[in-house]
Specification:
Blueprint: H1 7-12, H2 14-23, E1 28-29, H3 30-34, H4 41-53, E2 57-62, E3 65-70, H5 76-104
Antiparallel strand pairs: 1-3, 2-3
Length: about 110
């Protein structure tokens, strides 16, 4: 069975978050991405592969180079989840606050 990757896997790792942040400034080749990290080319390539599988980064061959470009629209899924979670928790806290007010006034 093939594991399906999603945007939450992409942002779960701090190195991948830094790669996304770096690419948000503009497309770069692998060498340009590697220069800010103290890890091997192979390690960066693995992170790029995960980001590509999650739909966060597109990789386009240009000559002998691979140019990586961030796809920030994929973060909409995270934003939607956070907004729904915030709404749910706000409702729960309002119910708790009402309960505490009701029980303390008795």
């Amino acid at each position: 069975m093939i594991e399906r990757r999603d945007v939450f896997q992409a942002i779960a790792d701090p190195t991948r978050r830094m790669i996304i942040q770096k690419l948000s400034r503009g497309p770069q080749n692998l060498a340009g991405i590697i220069e800010d990290f103290g890890i091997s080319r192979q390690a960066i390539a693995k992170h790029i592969k995960v980001l590509n599988e999650c739909g966060m980064v597109s990789v386009t061959p240009k000559g002998r180079e691979q140019v990586c470009e961030v796809q920030l629209a994929a973060l909409d899924e995270v934003n939607d989840w956070v907004a729904e979670s915030r709404k749910l928790w706000n409702q729960r806290f309002q119910k708790l606050e009402q309960f505490l007010e009701d029980t303390s006034s008795k």
